[in-house]
Design brief:
The protein is mainly alpha-helical. Helices cover 74% and strands 0% of the residues.
Amino acid sequence: MSGTGTTDAEAGTCVGELCNYGWNELLTQMSPFGWGYYGIAFGLGCSVVGAAWGIWLTGSCLVGAAVKAPRIRSKNLISVIFCEATAIYGVILAIILLSKMTVPKDFSHDMPKDFLYNQWYFSGYSVFSSGLSVGLTNIASGISVGLAGSSCAIADAQNPTLFVKILIVEIFASALGIFGIIVGIIQSNSAQFPS
């Protein structure tokens, strides 16, 4: 490069004090509050995506099967409710995790030497992992409930005696979301930001 500015040799070297030499340094220099809020966003966002995906799967099959058998419309709406429950699990966990996100008194860029940095980072990572695991579990739960619900609508249109049998499978698919929120609560149980 000619003229003023950064030369090609300088562009490849780090000249600043807080240069990120790799992923390890980049990820450890991120604020624990950032990790926590990313976890909450992943948990809530992925739960809503899982619910929407399940409702899309169930709703499209329900509308299509209702052309053949209009009687299934109201009875099979329970599948849509099961899908919506996955989004509610994400909202519940987001509220629980937000209550753990407390800012220390006299928070500034220069914290005292006796500040509990290990507890601070542990809490951020804990809230992040809790939100991520609940979000991913609720995506799986929403898709599985949606697939079971669509099968339930099609089977009910063919044979009304199959509704309760397939509904039991749908309940077990919905239990994945409950297991996910229980694991998320256990993961974030010891997350306590220093005050």
